[in-house]
Write the structure tokens for this entry.
Amino acid sequence: MAVSEDAQTEIIVAEQVTHFESGNEMAATAAAQINYHIMGYFPITPSTEVAQYLDQMKANGLHDIQLIAADGEHGSAGICYGAAMAGARVINATSSQGFLYMLEQLPTQSGTRFPMVLNLVTRAVSGPLDIRGDHSDLYYGLNTGWVILTASTPQAVYDMNIMALKIAEHSEVRLPVIVAYDGFFTSHQKRKVQYFKENEVVQNFVGPNPNPNYPNVSDPAHPVTIGAHMGGDDLLNNHYQLSVALEKAGEVYAEVAREYAALSGREHKVLDLYRMDDAEVAVFLLNSAGESAKDTVDALRAKGIRAGLVRPNLIRPFPAEQLRQALKNVKALLVGERADSYGAQGGNLTHEIRSALQLDPDNKTIILSRIFGLGGKDFYADDAEAFFQLAMDAADKGYAEKPFDYHGYYPGDAKDALVPVMEPLHGDAYKSGLIEVTPSEDTGLLKVKLPPLRQLTAKPHRLAPGHGACPGCGALSALELFFKGIEGDMVVLFQTGCAYVVTASYPYSSHNQTFVHNLFQNGAATLAGMVDAFYELKRRGEVQISDDITFVMVSGDGGMDIGMGATVGAALRNHKMIILEYDNEGYMNTGSQLSYSTPMGHMTSTSGVGKAQKGKKGHHKDTAQILAACNIPYVFTGAESNPQDLLQKAAKAQWYANNVGTAYGKLLCACPLNWKTSDHSGYDLVKAAVDSCFFPLYEIEQGITSITYNPELKGKRIPAVEWLKGMGKTKHLLKDEELLQNFEAEIERRWSRLKLKNESSLL
């Protein structure tokens, strides 16, 4: 068996506690023990748990970190940078597209030399979308000027999070640090770990916060200028200094690792060299795959094969000299990488290893490169054996027959060609001829004539059965009801979220018409380009298609936070399309984190309830009013509890989208799993939200507001508590009179304003 971390030493200087924990739990534990000042964050799988665990600890009073929910990862990076400039200790966590979205900000922070720690829980980069772990996000960070540590186990995640801050704040480094570990492999799998019993041990190790002694914006008596424009000469000097500091970080890492070993009994050297003393063939692997391959090394050694493993704990700065020493006598090295540098005939680290060995004229090591494990594809002992076999073959022949290749792919076969599970529908199939929309001659506003609802049930479903939504999910049923009001063909774009994830997983789709997915932050812009291209192609006569196609973007699960910029931009340009938001009051697709649409006081996985906090702070965002301020022709709210009202609004939205410009609609949708309710109660809860006036039903047509369902006039209005008591996420509100009164007062304020707008077309 491979030597475990627990067997590295028997000397434990400081008292530690033994548990079984995941990498995300250990990152949060280290952060809580350090007691950072600020964490700006945005939920994305699989890093979201770090913020969740910290919020749980916060609710129980276990740390004082201010957790700031951003509008997106770019915003979270800005929050962290701003906090660092103010002299605070700062932490963040992200993954995949989130890391790429914040990428623009990262060189700014390293270039101005403000330290912080970022946990990068590695995950495949789209497209197509895959939420499991590889290193395609990590490789984008190689040129940001950040120190990068790689943690292969939950224990290493904990240890390196503590070491990272000390390295970042070192006077000769002063750079931000990434701690990268494998999504789901390391982030979620529990392993035996040890952590210090007393927080003071960790805090004494990292030392007092030196940041206030560095240039910062918090002292008005000592004004500073940060990020001023530089000419070429100065910028060259700046980047040279950054390069020197990053190289120095390698020495500082080794120094901090020795100090940490004396405290913990665990030393994470720059390179983890497993049985490399006399190795003739070796494999180079990052993170968890390196741990998995150690057993294969032992098995080969038992057969008399001199095999070894190289696994780095530090890749920025790149440990070139240590690699030259480790590979002096190795005949062949296979570099396995979970990310490709497309078109370069090898991943990034392959080329860096080759470059490092070029400086040693005596080194004759044959380098092979294999791309493996993309999208979280598992790495087994058989895969490690295949890697070593390739290295052994090259060592025997004196050259590599195929220096670069992918490992684990397979050719397609005509007999396995995908066959559609269902026959797509178009044209007359979705034209009932039962819905009439006509502009009023007097007002110019639309009149809608609807048949009895039962007659529309004959229209085919836009979303076919067989999707993977949770029992009782209100999003898909509400969307399907809305689609009943759309006549003719439709092109729909779903932003990332539950409604996308459960309806379209390769190779199958639940969509009966053309479906597109794009990322949270850019759906509206993507559909805008699609719409304008369609009309331009039509104008030029290059496509012969009917004019009645309706373009719809579906957003939800907090998509109107991170995607708000693109949405407002599309609305201001007034493209001919419908923007439809299903509002389930949180980021449900990543585990029920708070969104700006989460109402005040409601419990989510990042707005916990405990002795130190009482759910989400602040009231929910009124997206419909924001979009109305963009002066688009039609805005509405809708709910499945009022089907005729929703169908009328769907018909109006289609007319405006096809004839005038952008229409926006917001649908309240129950989420039994995260609202903590029974599967069958969604309809009643949505109805209660409407009848309590928490979610009023209205439309803003050509700037004129009309309440389309007034529970007061119908004698059906109920107190907000009648809605709140039906959900597990809000029962604590019923016991807090002050919080409940604040919540009810906001409902009344918004409802009163809406009634005034209903009474005056000038408001």
